[in-house]
Each structure stands twice: as C-alpha cells, then as structure tokens.
Design a protein that fits this description.
The protein contains 9 helices and 11 strands. It is an alpha+beta fold.
Length: 455
C-alpha cells in the first residue's frame, strides 16, 4: 500500500486519473442509489393510483365486488398479479385467498391505504366508501408490487451501471492524451546528443508546461554558449601555440646541424620528439574543436573508396616506415551524403591510430560493406586490440588504455566519435581476430539513402 501511494504521488497523470475515477465512482454510486429509491417509491405511488382507479370505477359503474368462484379459479394462474375487490366486513369463507376466497379484513378499517399481513401474506389494501354507502376494499399482494417496483427502479439505474465503466475509460484515455505532449517532449530531449542544443519547440506543449520549456531553452542556450566559449578557447589556445611550437621545431632542426657530442645529440633527439608530439597534440585539439562545433550539412555524395585513397596517399610514408602492409580490400563502394572534410578526418584518425598501434611488419585492411541500409566503413589492424572493458573509455579525450607504449595525444577516437555523433553514424569496436582476441576492428555505420547508394 505504501509503495502504491508513493507511485501515486510521484505521477501527476496517475494521481489525476485515480482521483477523477474515484470521484466519478462516488458520484455514480450516490446518484444510482438516489435514482433507485426514487424510482422505487414512484412505482409504488403509481401502483397505489391503480388501486384508487379501480375503486373509482367500481363506484361510478356501480359494479358489484362479488365474483363467481369459477372465475376466481380461472384466474388462479396469475394470482400474484390479481387485484382483489370485495365488500368490507364480508363473512369468512372456507376457501383460502389463493383459491378465490375473500380477504379476512376487519370491518372497522377506516377509509385509506394500508399495508396488512393477511393469511400469512402482505397485502396493500385501499378501503373506500362508495356513493351508495357501501364500503369496498381493493387489495393487491405486496410481493408482486415490490417486484414490479424493483424492476422499474433497476431499469432506471441501469444507465449508471453501463455508462460508468465507459466514463472511467474515457477519463483515463483523456488524461493519457493530455499528457502525451509531455511524454513526447521528454523523448525528444532524451534522444538528443550532447552537442544537440537547439531550443525545444513549445507549440504542442500545454500552456501550463510552457514556462518549464522556456526555462529548459534558456538553460540549453547557456550551456551552448558555455560550450562554444570552451571550444573557442581550446581552438584559440591551440592556434596561438602552433607558431611557437613551429619556431621551436625549426630551431631544433638547425641545432641538429651543429657539431655536438653524442650525449647532447641524444638529448636533442628527445627534445625534437617532444616538440613533434606537442605539435601533433595541438593539431588534434584543433581538429576536435572543429569536429564539435561544425554544423555544416552535406549536399554532394562522397565516395568512400575515394576517401580511402586520399588518406592512404597522405599516411603511406608512416606505414612504409614500419613495413606495414596497408591497403583496401574489395571493390565495393558507397556514396555517402556527409561532409567530405568530416569523412576524411574520421578515416585519417582511424588509419593513423591503426598505424601507430600496429607492430612492424603488421597488416591494416580498409573495406566498405553494407548492412541494413547503412554503409559500413571498416578499418582493422593486427595490433594488440582494445579490451572489452576499455572500449567505452577510449572515446574520452586524452584517455589512453593501460599498457599503451605508443606516443599519442589520446584524441583520435574522441574526434571520430564527435564527427560520428554529428552526422548520425554509429561506431562499433571489436577484435580483428576474435579467436586470438587480438587486433582492433573499427566499424563506422553511416545511413545511406536509397537514391544515394552506389557501388
């Protein structure tokens, strides 16, 4: 009971539905009881009027209340519905009431209506004095009268019994439909990515919820401004640091041409390696800032194999330096409606990451496949791979898996995820060799419209 009460208090929709349903049930019960009792009494009043009409007819037509016994016995099959008319004070008979005998009414009854128990049965009796001075009793069994009145009252209350369930269903359905825009608003906000900060539409939202939507939009605007300021700061800082790092690199190259001792030359090599790593870090930070802030929509289909060729032309020297066999498998292609710069950045980071983590004399394969209306861009290598427990964290900026000895910034996969999130693509990681649990396989699943497919 306590758990139900907590759920009831936590849900406005449920609380409103339960409250309205209970109110409707209470009103329906009270109205049904009142209607039943009123109809029951009204039916009795109509039945009393029937007794009065019979007495009036007997008086006006000067009819005799005596009935032949044969007639009484002929109507015995409908004895509950019969109306008994007799003189008041009529002598007792050997016949019972059910056999057509008179009711044992006392002669001292005054004019009026009575409910009497006669011969073990309840009767409604009307006593009346006719114009000729004769006293007449008109009677009917109370059981039959009650049955007729009860049936009439139930027919009056029947609409409540039939309509209340329908009304309860209508209330529940109406409340659910009234809260449907709020549920749609919650789904819209929940399905957004962390970079999708455009204002929430308040047109389909009820007036009472609009202040809440306005507050959300203001919060989204503040978050967007904060993120833009952060990205601008990162981009500006990286851009400003590129010139000093370039100058340091040039100075280190000139210094390498001077005569120096072997220990000094070793220290210079370490310095140049650190400068190169810093330059790459700055380039990656600029690329990440562009990936997170760019909102350009593509207009021209781009060939996936064409992007592979461009990236391989740029990174082939790095692969040759480590004697890595790198190339494209198959001839299947897909034309993708994404920004060419975005696709180049994604593939370049994946291939560069694969070259850095693949040991010498290793292998890197690039391929294009299709899967349920999506193009699959696949890059797999023969490196150590990424453990299942680390596959979510490797997309975090500056994160590097434990045991990684390669020099890098930890931003490559973060850039890939930022671009994939913006273009509506999914990323899937796995082992290139599932049996040996080695090698990394990265798959980018990009939606491909029917008119945009191509091999």
């Amino acid at each position: 009971m306590d758990g139900f009460q907590k759920r009831l208090n936590a849900s406005v929709q449920r609380k409103l539905s339960v409250t309205l349903s209970l109110a409707i049930l209470a009103v329906a019960v009270v109205a049904g009881i009142v209607s039943f009792l009123s109809a029951f009494e009204e039916a009795h009043e109509l039945q009393d009027d029937v007794l009065r009409q019979v007495a009036r007819i007997m008086d006006r037509q000067r009819l005799s209340p005596d009935r032949p016994p044969a007639e009484a016995r002929g109507q015995a099959g409908d004895e509950e519905a019969r109306v008994i008319v007799q003189r008041l004070g009529q002598p007792a008979s050997a016949l019972g009431v059910d056999d057509g005998g008179p009711l044992p009414l006392p002669a001292t009854l005054a004019d009026g209506l009575y409910t009497l128990e006669l011969s073990g049965e309840m009767f409604r009796v009307l006593v009346r004095t006719t114009a000729g001075g004769e006293r007449v009793a008109v009677a009917q069994e109370s059981g039959f009268r009650d049955e007729i009145a009860r049936g009439s009252a139930l027919r009056t209350a029947m609409p409540f019994l039939l309509l209340v369930p329908v009304l309860l269903w209508l209330v529940a359905d109406l409340v659910r439909k009234m809260f449907r825009p709020i549920a749609a608003l919650a789904r819209d906000i929940d399905q957004r990515s962390e970079h999708d900060l455009h204002p929430v539409e308040d047109a389909p939202v009820p007036t009472e919820i609009r202040p809440f939507v306005v507050a959300i939009n203001r919060l989204l605007a503040r978050v967007a401004r904060s993120m833009d300021a952060q990205r601008r700061f990162v981009a500006d800082a990286a851009h400003e640091l590129r010139s000093p790092m370039t100058a340091l690199s040039l100075q280190a190259e000139r210094l390498a041409q001077a005569d120096m001792s072997d220990p000094a030359r070793e220290r210079l090599a370490t310095l140049r390696l650190g400068i190169e790593r810093s330059r790459r870090l700055l380039d990656q930070m600029l690329a990440l800032a562009r990936a997170q802030s760019s909102n350009d929509q593509p207009a021209v289909p781009v060939s996936a194999l064409g992007i592979y060729r461009r990236v391989l032309e740029d990174l082939m020297p790095l692969a040759e330096a480590k004697r890595i066999d790198i190339g494209v498998e198959g001839t299947q292609d897909a034309r993708l409606r994404v920004s060419e710069l975005d696709l180049v950045a994604m593939v370049r980071n994946l291939v560069d990451n694969a070259i850095r983590h693949t040991p010498p004399d290793g292998r890197i394969d690039l391929s294009v496949d299709r899967e349920q209306g999506r193009a699959v861009l696949r890059v797999q290598d023969s490196g150590p791979g990424i453990a299942s427990a680390e596959r979510e964290r490797v997309f975090d900026a500056f994160y590097r898996p434990p045991g990684s000895e390669q020099i890098g910034s930890g931003l490559g996969l973060a850039i890939v995820r930022a671009i994939a999130s913006r273009i509506g693509a999914n990323i899937r990681l796995g082992y290139a060799d599932e049996t040996a649990r080695r090698g990394l396989r990265v798959e980018i699943l990009i939606p491909v419209p029917e008119e945009g497919d191509g091999d």
